[in-house]
């Protein structure tokens, strides 16, 4: 049985200027996802700015989220760190608190070799005994997982899934087929990159790891469920209605955009950790206009 499937929603991690978690705001975000009945929650991913948080604050965020879910939704916790021993401790924390899995990226200051990444992931999986999801995020880590490395990692006990980036939508089907050919049958294959994820789900990917799903889960679930049901036309129709959002993500980054969306929807008021700056007012107005148009487009798409 695959540990992850469907929509994995990645919320922001609200915090103050001192890096302290805003527990009340985080609870609101998690409650929103539980109400929508997402398939899993990706806490402390890149959208959750995990690399900007101390070990203690990561524990606090995870404890808060797990308390809010009350075990109703699996939580995948980001456990990436620069050093292997630190990643092991973070993964051990996540397991002790009750996370379903850990999301691990090949984070490094110095460029890593494939053997170094294999050893890093194997050690974290072995010493934490927490199921590990490979996080291939070359945009931030500058490391790309080759098919050979994915195949080797997929044979390591405890490494159970991969979160792939997406590039060209017309290449996802071939990429997915290739990964299916080098990984065990119970290995979960999913994709991020919200603007291409609909095509990934249509092609038969197990999981959509979604930034937008962390703040607007209902519409993202609509895409996932229609794709899973084989209703390709409906999935693409809803995705097309979201194209203005995807344009915002590409122009301003999904991270900055989703902080603005959270505020505009009245879910929580938060800013990304410095040195990342929130969107300037003209950009926020563009996001607000986009949300207004989106409501009309989605109503027409029903």
Walk me through what this model shows.
The chain has 302 residues and is α/β, with parallel strands linked by helices. The protein has one domain: TIM Barrel, CATH 3.20.20. The chain contains 13 helices and eight strands. It has an eight-stranded parallel barrel, surrounded by seven helices. Strand 1, helix 1 and strand 2 form a beta-alpha-beta unit. Helix 9 runs antiparallel to helix 10 and helix 12 crosses helix 13. It is globular. The model has no long low-confidence stretch (mean pLDDT 95).
Going by CATH, the homologous superfamily would be Aldolase class I
The CATH topology turns out to be: TIM Barrel
- Low-confidence blocks of residues: none
Radius of gyration, Cα only, in angstroms? 18 Å
The SS-based structural class is: alpha/beta
Instruction: Give me the number of helical elements.
Output: 13
Q: How many DSSP E strands?
A: 8
Largest sheet: 8 strands, parallel, barrel
Strand content: 5-15%
- Write the CATH architecture name: Alpha-Beta Barrel
Question: What is the CATH domain class?
Answer: Alpha Beta
Please trace the helix and strand order, writing H or E for each element. Answer: EHEHEHEHEHHEHEHEHHHHH
Provide the helix percentage. Answer: 40-55%
Overall 3D shape: globular
* Average pLDDT level: 95
Total domain modules: 1
Widest sheet: strand order? 1-2-3-4-5-6-7-8
Q: Span from first to last CA?
A: 33 Å
């Amino acid at each position: 049985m695959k540990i992850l499937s469907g929509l994995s929603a990645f919320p922001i991690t609200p915090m103050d200027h001192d890096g302290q978690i805003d527990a009340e705001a985080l609870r609101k975000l998690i409650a929103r996802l539980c109400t929508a009945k997402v398939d899993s929650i990706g806490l402390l991913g890149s959208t959750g700015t995990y690399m900007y948080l101390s070990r203690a604050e990561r524990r606090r965020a995870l404890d808060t989220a797990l308390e809010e879910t009350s075990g109703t939704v699996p939580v995948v916790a980001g456990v990436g760190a620069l050093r292997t021993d630190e990643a092991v401790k973070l993964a051990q924390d996540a397991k002790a608190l009750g996370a379903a899995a850990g999301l691990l990226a090949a984070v490094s200051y110095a460029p890593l070799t494939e053997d170094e990444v294999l050893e890093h992931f194997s050690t974290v999986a072995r010493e934490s005994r927490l199921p590990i999801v490979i996080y291939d995020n070359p945009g931030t880590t500058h490391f790309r997982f080759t098919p050979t490395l994915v195949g080797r990692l997929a044979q390591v006990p405890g490494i159970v899934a991969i979160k792939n980036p997406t590039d060209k939508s017309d290449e996802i089907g071939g990429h997915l087929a290739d990964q299916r050919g080098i990984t065990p049958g119970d290995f979960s294959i999913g994709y991020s990159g919200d603007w291409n994820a609909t095509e990934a789900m249509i092609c038969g990917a197990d999981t959509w790891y979604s930034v937008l799903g962390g703040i607007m889960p209902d519409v993202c679930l609509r895409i996932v469920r229609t794709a899973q049901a084989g209703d390709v036309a409906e999935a693409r129709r809803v995705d097309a209605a979201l194209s203005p959002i995807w344009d915002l993500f590409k122009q301003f980054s999904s991270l900055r955009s989703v902080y603005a969306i959270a505020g505009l929807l009245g879910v929580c008021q938060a800013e990304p950790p410095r040195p990342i700056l929130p969107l300037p007012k003209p950009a926020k107005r563009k996001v607000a206009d986009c949300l207004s148009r989106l409501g009309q487009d989605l109503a027409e798409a029903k």
